[in-house]
Amino acid sequence: EIHVSHDGVNLNTFKQIDKNKAINLLSLDQKINYLVYIGRFSTLGKEKGIPQIIESLKFLKENTTAIFVGGPLNHIDDYYEIAKNNNVDLNRLIFIDRQSVSELYKFIGAASALLMPFPFTKHYAYYMSPIKMFEYMSSMRPIIASNLPSICEVLKNKNNSILCEPDNPKDLATKINYVLNNDCSNIITQAYKDVQEYTWDKRAENIKRFMNNKREAL
Length: 218
Hints:
alpha/beta, 6-stranded parallel beta sheet, two-stranded antiparallel sheet, 10 helices, globular
């Protein structure tokens, strides 16, 4: 028999911070809505949603900026080209290289929405368990993620997150507008409640319990 255990989060590391304070710590503009993506920009050469985020900006107001934190920065010119092709002002894109885990809470805290719009691939749809999903859930910020089977094991639309169609920048923009224009406090609270079951300690307890149960059954 097999026990499958999701990744998790250390709640003490991803501490909550007032949004305005986070924006000030990062020397950002209080008048801007920041959409934040945390994590490597690609894995094994495969995109993880940044092109879709860039394209979605053309459907959003000019006071909306995307921050991408995680690097590497060697394909930034390609992302700028996507922006130019979609008439998106390059000033609405902020790319930041990899940061220490202890610094990520500032960027997460500055977010009006946290983005995780993975494209539909076999790996992303069925096999991944993104650590940033649990980091996002612990932050008390609204999450917008792709409606993929692997994601839906944890995130539920309009329950603890807002789900968008994968590979659909216009739908992503629609969901971003929903978050920016509606009270998402119940969704945020539910995500934080749910993530209590996805700490690293809980993960270890669940694995140990499974192993002990199997040992007793022998």
